[in-house]
Every structure is written in C-alpha cells, then in structure tokens.
Specification:
The chain has 233 residues and is mainly α. The protein is built from 12 helices and 2 strands; from the N terminus they run αααββααααααααα.
Length: 233
C-alpha cells in the first residue's frame, strides 16, 4: 500500500472507531505523525486528500477538524466528478438511477407523510398543459427530489441528488428530439405519484423503473445511431 494511502487509512480508522468524532480537532501535526508512525509529509498528504472529499476541514491558523460527516457534505465531491463526464458516460449514471430511483419510490410509498404526498401531487399540477422542455425537466428534478427526500433515507437522498442533475442535459435533449417524450414523462410521473398516494410500494417501484429505463433506452439508441451528439451542458 502506498505511504499516503496507509496514512489515510490510519486517520479513517480513528474516525470510524469514534476516537475522532464529527467536529473533533486533530492533534498537532507532530504529535499525530509520531503517534501514527508516519512522516509529517505523509500525514500532510493524507490530510489534504481527506479535506478534498470533505472528511476533514483545514482551518488556517486554527487547526484541522473532522467535518460534520453529513451525507450531503461527503457526497458533494461526487457531484463534481459526475459533472466532468459527457455523452455515453451518462448511461452509467442512468443505470445507477434505474437501480436507486425505484427503491426510493418504494420507500416513499411506505413512509412518506400525507403532507409530503400532497406536495408531490402539487408539483405535478403546477406544470402547465404544454410546458417547455426546460420547464418539464425542472419539474422532473423537483418531483424526483421530493420522492428521494420522502424515502426517509438521507444517504439515498444525497446520492440521488448527486447523480440526477448531470443527467438533466440528456433529458432536455430527449425532450427536444424524441416525439411524445413530454407526454410520456407526464404520464409516468402521474402513475408514480398515484402509487405513492395509494401506499403501494411495489407499484411505485415498477413505474419508477419504467420511467428511468425509458430515458436510458432512448439515450442508448441515440448514441448508437447517427443522431447528433448531446449538446454541451
């Protein structure tokens, strides 16, 4: 194992075991390096790496602290990586959505509060009869965000938030180029919403699978044909 990776593992172990909790300040560099059997240079590299993924917070003139370790904070770095990918790589994110979105819909159908169900229905109804593609996708993002939050699982919600935005570009392109895409999206959203309102987890799971798979299948076809490439985001 490379020296820096070993240093990272030792710091992570202190956090996982609870020796360093959220908000804790790390010991002085010299003391921590000696305690962990590391060179000060290796320790600095490990701290730098862990700060880049929001596990540690380096405060100039104050010290280094463990962050809150909230899922949303830890997953922010993932969103940056996803934003760098283009075209066919988006398929991989859609594949992940196809696995996770149905699970979130099923969980929401089981535990979502009446107030949140009403908010989900209101989101559908606030969309105009003939919306622009941009308005539809904005509504789509809000709709799926409410379902993810309604699942009651903050980690799942954060993961879905991280991968949904970058796929919006593909959804907009689909709405502009595929006949009937807007109508099908509205119909599928309505079916998902109805299943959640009826507290039918497996029906919600099935419709969410159909919904995400529809976009995924279109993109596979578009990228495999002579169709123009996705426009820049």
């Amino acid at each position: 194992m490379p020296v820096t990776d070993g240093a990272i593992e030792k710091i992570k172990a202190m956090i996982v075991t609870g020796e360093l909790g959220p908000g804790s300040k790390l010991p002085r560099e010299a003391d921590l390096a000696e305690r962990l059997g590391l060179s000060r240079n290796s320790l600095r590299e490990a701290v730098k790496a862990l700060s880049l993924i929001n596990v540690l917070d380096v405060r100039q003139g104050d010290g280094t602290y463990v962050t809150s370790l909230e899922p949303g904070l830890l997953l922010e770095a993932m969103g940056f990586v996803i934003d760098l990918h283009q075209d066919d790589t988006v398929l991989e994110f859609l594949e992940v959505r196809r696995i996770l979105e149905p699970a979130a819909a099923a969980m929401a159908a089981a535990v979502m509060s009446d107030g949140d169900r009403a908010a989900l229905r209101a989101t559908l109804e606030e969309l105009e009869e003939s919306p622009t593609v941009e308005a539809l996708v904005a509504n789509d993002l809000k709709f799926h965000r409410l379902i993810a939050a309604g699942s009651g699982n903050t980690v799942l919600c954060s993961v879905l938030e991280g991968i949904s935005g970058p796929t919006a570009r593909a959804r907009i392109w689909r709405g502009l180029t595929q006949e009937g895409a807007v109508r099908r999206t509205r119909e599928q959203h309505a079916s998902i919403c109805e299943a959640i309102e009826a507290r039918r987890p497996e029906v919600a799971r099935a419709w969410a699978t159909v919904h995400v798979a529809d976009v995924e299948q279109w993109l596979r076809s578009a990228l495999g044909s002579a169709a123009p490439a996705l426009p820049p985001g």
